[in-house]
């Protein structure tokens, strides 16, 4: 069969180049794993297995990576098959393809590569969390005004803010780990779509290739892409959350806010304005993360409304986009983590603005409810009235203003000294009394950080277990193929 030059140029050549980069390594592992299983089950003889093993050993992965597309071979699989025929002869080489198809080989390659992507992205979120935990630990007492609807709302601490981001990243890791579990099942043995009549051992190839076990239904093993969409969706959620965090960081880096300063290695100057100190590393992280999020959406669009079966839409043309999405997601998360390790907050500037705009008035209302038993709505009205009076007479005595406002509403004034009101309205007091689970009081954020440390270690242990399992499978595959 000779392919049309346009088809070669626009499809086959590009897919071949992509496959060499992404799937050559897992393809060779699949060949070895399938061979060991065929020999173990007696489907190929011991002598044939050794010839095939030696033939696979003779194939140079390095040479393949530099081999240009040859339309005598449809794709990477057929190139490797031709090399094996050259090494073993057609009769013996042809036995390796017993009880399998390009369909189940492709789906197995995709999952093997994708699980690597998931592990790498999970690891990056873990390292970002590590940086934020250390930063939060240094800023348990650092006050600043939290915003709602872009306006100053209530005082909190940098630790409290960062813990919100940290816990979000913890959930991201949970989602990614769940996606890994769904992904790490072995389709090999599903063949074209209905399995095989040969007495294969799908659990053996699963063990040799580092899978937790085989997939179930052979039709679904070839047809399904939900495992792919699960990891893409988990990545998209991570990217969306990261983007919101980065948006805050960039705002805090502005001269108008001046809350955050990146280390010299993460900023750039201007070719014309020597005073500029541009936080471009975070800008790049935002742009790269947005691009990855767009790629994630494109992946979902590419596979929706396609037939539930073996179809090109989920294969050669899609897989490079999957790889690029994970690569860019990894770049964005890693870059933010690196920048935050050396970032510095301007503690004095943050605290100087913590009470601006009446951010502590909620505590005054709460205090009046606790101390005088009045309904919160009335206490809210009194606190709002005090703010209005203070704005009209900035230098006036707070005690007298409160007495007037409360007396008009309650019929009798509430008596407080200026010092008492100042203490109630202080940002430090506001934060310290908020000891609610998940609140900003330093003792509560200390507890939460200890818990996040434990979650961090749990996730690091998961990464180690996964890495150890994959390395053990590689070692087992090598040992079993050497023993043929």
How would you describe the overall organization of this protein?
The protein is elongated. It has helices at 5-22, 24-40, 46-58, 61-65, 76-88, 90-93, 102-138, 158-183, 202-208, 218-223, 226-253, 280-303, 319-341, 347-352, 361-372, 376-392, 398-410, 418-424, 427-432, 442-482, and strands spanning 143-148, 151-157, 260-261, 344-345. Helix 3 crosses helix 5, helix 8 runs antiparallel to helix 11 and helix 11 runs antiparallel to helix 12 (280-303). It contains 20 helices and four strands. A hairpin with a 2-residue loop joins strand 1 (143-148) and strand 2. The strands form two sheets. A two-stranded antiparallel ribbon has the order 1-2. It is 67% helix and 4% strand. The protein has three domains: 5-98, Fumarase C, Chain B, domain 1; 103-353 and 448-482, Fumarase/aspartase (Central domain) (Fumarase C, Chain A, domain 2, Up-down Bundle); 361-425. The chain is mainly α and 484 residues long. The model has no long low-confidence stretch (mean pLDDT 95). The two termini are 36 Å apart.
Short précis:
By secondary structure, the protein is mainly α.
